[in-house]
Amino acid sequence: MTGLKKRGMLSGAATCKLCRDQGEDADHLFTGCYVAAILWHKVSTWCKIQPIFAFTMKDLLEFHKTQLMEEPKRKYVKTIILATCWSIWKARNEGIFNGKRASIDGIFGEMQANFCGLNAEQRKWILIGGAGQILSFYNGE
Ligand SMILES: [Zn+2]
Q1: Is residue 7 part of a domain?
Q2: Domain total for the chain?
């Protein structure tokens, strides 16, 4: 039994609510789960950056520091990674509390929608800087 389970921080079954296959802990949920792996692939494609390979939460949170990127982009990559973690976390909670099984596209779409809540200057960067799919998102295409 893991320390987290003993302290009651994980539900009794503690099965990952995204894949419903493996045991859940933070590193599985955000990096080890196949759902997370597909999401990070989609994020790196969307941001036009190198594939995001992470084995721990720490790898994710420090990914932007390890890449050669100009400064504005670095900041946005960090923000998008955090927004993706937040969407994964919400999907996980929906699974636990409402029994809903989130789709990968649903999680990714929600992250993009959250990211669209940024201000005009930040959006401009997105459109110019590579994550241009936001444009078609706004146009409802
Ligand atoms: Zn999983």
Answers
A1: no
A2: 1
Tell me the C-alpha distance between 40 and 31, whole Å. 8
pTM of the predicted model, to two decimals?
0.75
Assign 18 to helix, strand or coil: coil
Q: Does residue 3 form part of some domain?
A: no
pLDDT in tens, 53-66: 899 888 988 899 89
Distance 51 CA to ligand 1 centre (A): 20
Q: Is residue 6 part of a domain?
A: no
* Domain boundaries, position 97: 15-138
**Contact criterion met (CB below 8 Å) for 129 and 76:** yes
For residue 35, the CA-to-ligand 1 centroid distance in Å is 7
Cα separation, 72 vs 89, whole angstroms: 26
94 CA to centre of ligand 1 in angstroms:
14
Q: What is the pLDDT of residues 15-33, one digit of tens each?
A: 999 999 999 888 898 999 9
With a cut of 70, list the residues of the chain below it in pLDDT. 1-13, 116-141
Any domain includes 127 = yes
